[in-house]
Structures are given as structure tokens and as C-alpha cells.
Amino acid sequence: xxxxxxxxxxxxxxxxxxxxxxxxxxxxxxxxxxxxxxxxxxxxxxxxxxxxxxxxxxxxxxxxxxxxxxxxxxxxxxxxxxxxxxxxxxxxxxxxxxxxxxxxxxxxxxxxxxxxxxxxxxxxxxxxxxxxxxxxxxxxxxxxxxxxxxxxxxxxxxxxxxxxxxxxxxxxxxxxxxxxxxxxxxxxxxxxxxxxxxxxxxxxxxxxxxxxxxxxxxxxxxxxxxxxxxxxxxxxxxxxxxxxxxxxxxxxxxxxxxxxxxxxxxxxxxxxxxxxxxxxxxxxxxxxxxxxxxxxxxxxxxxxxxxxxxxxxxxxxxxxxxxxxxxxxxxxxxxxxxxxxxxxxxxxxxxxxxxxxxxxxxxxxxxxxxxxx
Length: 373
Hints:
The chain is 45% helix and 27% strand.
């Protein structure tokens, strides 16, 4: 495998992984006449017509008509034989298959790109992939970078066919008006600009708020008494909670770093890093919830669910403020981390002392009991 083809493969893999990560942003099947966002599946039915399709999904299938562009990141992108796209197709995916008609250009970064014998592309084809097969009609130029590039017997290319591949196969029946040229410089540049698939800031913030709210609901529902103690810690002693949070934030990574130095401690450090990461997320949610509970208490309200909503939404809004937003988030995190650490310590000590009727048996009581016997 050449360096360029390896770079193309890594690029396609990164695109596919990015697409799968973005699936958790939303669910459902697109039904509007113009789609923009995220869904499990984006399907344009045989009798449907969309103005454009832009977003992230597990599967994108065009069986009907898209009058404008299709710009997607997905596991699979398929323009079927009955599908028609009037504009361009820009796709980052695991598999991209064109069986239908595309009026503009096709730009694809994927594991596999297939332009079948029934495909008709009115513009250029630019692709970076592991495997590329062109067996349809492309009116413009083709730039293909891959480990394997195949030019099939039904291929009709109106312009030039440039490729960079470790393995190249051309059927004698293929027609290329502008000639076939090997170009070692196109491999890492072929395909769409991934900047097109950047998640809007508002969408990332909305998703973060959603998952934090979901975690908060779980914490309050499963550990109601403990969650109340954490909030009371923040309200009762904010300076102590923040100080303990800061010390914890410094001490835990140092301990994990020391463990990494020893071979025996490497597994422990990996587990510890994971646990601390989850704990930090919980601490952030607890900190924001605690501030929300404190704010409601000033108004004479005592509702943990409303406190969760007020705290998380409030900090999501504050987080949008340049510079200061990050400081607000840090303060909430330190308060939550410190209060969480103190509450856990209190719970552990309480369990250790509760060994006999809710209190620990003393040595004198034990000795007296023995003499009385």
C-alpha cells in the first residue's frame, strides 16, 4: 500500500467514524421536503421530491428526486436507479453507490465508491476511497485516489480520467475521451472538504444539554437522597466544595500519571482514567443542578426536577458567553466535584460506623458484656 493510498483509507475511515458519532444527535426518518439535520435514516421515496438534503444519518437513500444538492455524512449513501439529484452529491461515508442520475458533480470520501452501469453524472467525479469502480457515464473529468481503481466496460468518461492507485484495471471497452493519466499527487486530496460536515455550534450545544439532562434525570431518580446531599453541600459550604474539587482535579491525574510509570499500574491507570472521566461528567451535572437548586431556594421553591432544568439550561446559556462562559462552567464543575467527593466520603464513613444498631460498639461495652456473661 502506498503512502497516499493509506492516507486516503485513513481519511475514509475517519469520515465513516465521524458519521457514526453524529448519529446520536437525533433519530427518525426525514419527512420534510427539505432536510437539514441528523436522523437514523434519510429516505427520499420514489414519488417524493426534495429541495435539498444536508445532514448526518446511518443510511441515505435517494429513490425519488432531489432538485438541489445532497451533502451528507453517513454509513451508506445510495442514489438508486430511479433516483435523480439535480445538483451535486458530496458524501463522506462507508459506502457510496450511484445507480441513478446526478446533474452536477459527485465528490465522495468513503471505504467503497461504486458508479454502476446505469449511473449518469453530468459533472465531474472526485473520489478518495479504498476501492473505486466506475462503470457508468461521467460527462466531465474523473479524479480517483484509492488502493484499487476499476474502469469497467460500460464506462463512458467525457473528460480526462486521472487516478492514483496501487492497483488499476481498465476494461478495453471503456471509453475515455480525454485519456487515462496516472497522477500520484491526487490521492490524499480527492473527495469532499470535510469542513462541509462541521456540526453547527448550536446543534452541538443542544445535544450536550440533552445528554446532560438525561444523565441528571437518571441521577435524581436512582439516587434521590444522595443527590440532595450533594446539592446541600454546595449550598451550605461552597468554598469548601470548590476547594476540595480543585484539589481532587489536581491530585487524581497526578496519581494516575504515577501509576503509568509502573508496568503493574498501567491497567489500574487506564481503569482509573475512565472512572475519573465518568465521575467528572457526573460532577459537572451535579454542580449545575446544585446551583439551580440554590437559585430556586432563594425564591422559596423546592423542586429537584425544576432545579435540574434551571441549572443545566442556565449554564448552557451562560456557556455561550465568550471567555466568561467557560469560567462559569469551570466553577460549577469544581463545586460539583468537591461536593461529590465529600458526599461519597461521608457515605463511606457512615457505612463503616453503622455496624451495630446504627453505631459502632465500643471496647468497654464489649468487655462489659463479656464480664456480665
